[in-house]
Amino acid sequence: MPVNIPHKLPAIKALEEENIFVMDEARAMHQDIRPLRIAVLNLMPVKITTETDLIRLLSNTPLQLKLDLIKVMAHTPKNTPAEHMEMFYSDFEKIRHKKYDGLIVTGAPVEHLDFEDVNYWEEMRTIFEWAEHNVQSSLFICWASMAALYHYYGIPKYPLPQKKFGVFHHVAKYPKLPMFRGFDDEFHMPHSRHSEVRATDIEKIPGLEVIADSEEAGIGIIQEQTGRKLFVTGHFEYSTYNLDDEYKRDLAKGMDIGVPKHYYKKNNPEKHPVVRWRGHANLFFQNWLNYHVYQQTPFNIDEIK
């Protein structure tokens, strides 16, 4: 089934060219189906790319979804046209009266700052508190995972001596969990971050558990026991060229950035990237939507609490 997304969103054309079925709001009005309502708080700098990446993965499921894109009020994006934000995004304050089956909060390029120094931190705290009682299951990605862990449990983030940058091998610690149904014994996931959280801190919190990790990249996925919160330190949602774009961008800025590991063919940035994570990325989002959202959320969305 398709994802119901705002009419004329740029992702529609890009995904239709990949033979991925999406549906705008006008067509969805004629279908007598209660779609899952998913909110996406997109904090990434190039928002159109992130929208497309997430919709590509969310569309690969038999469930129909209604997607709302939301933004924080305290920050004005520099890399996305103001017209795009005005047309397709809602301020959090305009949707906070609603309930959602699922929430996705993306990463953000603010890892160098303490959480309290991020100019929209107070708004993030409000959103985290709102999600506790208005969202069935929340999925936090990269910086958002660290921010949510800090807000909900007081778990700190630690700066890394060198950026964790590349595609890394992971192992599921509990392969029988619903989130790993269909997974192979090992899987890969891209990472692009300057900070980490540590297992010693996670272990102190009852009901919180590391469910996938990597010898090279550290913690990969953390789950809250009920499945209402999932924290992913990497970027399953990345498509083929995201790491390539980041690498070339940082090089152009004169930054000291290493070649993303295990990404280019023969680790040569002159060669094409090798995508090793796409199959498991699709499974991960399907499993989240199926087992933690669809099978847990009440039919009457107003009963979420």
Set out the fold topology.
Blueprint: E1 3-5, H1 11-16, E2 22-24, H2 25-28, E3 36-41, H3 47-58, E4 65-71, H4 82-88, E5 89-91, H5 92-95, E6 100-105, H6 121-134, E7 135-141, H7 143-153, E8 158-172, E9 186-196, H8 199-202, E10 208-214, E11 218-224, E12 229-232, H9 242-252, H10 278-294
Parallel strand pairs: 1-2, 1-4, 3-4, 3-6, 4-5, 6-7, 7-12
Antiparallel strand pairs: 8-9, 8-10, 10-11, 11-12
Broad structural category: alpha/beta
Specify the CATH architecture. Answer: 3-Layer(aba) Sandwich
Supply the number of helical segments.
10
The level 1 CATH classification is: Alpha Beta
Number of strand segments? 12
Low-pLDDT stretches = none
Would you identify the CATH H-level superfamily?
Class I glutamine amidotransferase (GATase) domain
Computed Rg: 18 Å
Q: Assign the CATH topology.
A: Rossmann fold
Q: What is the percent of helical residues?
A: 25-40%
Shape: globular
- What pattern of helices and strands is seen along the backbone? EHEHEHEHEHEHEHEEHEEEHH
Task: Report a brief summary of the structure.
By secondary structure, the protein is of the alpha/beta class. The chain is built from ten helices and twelve strands.
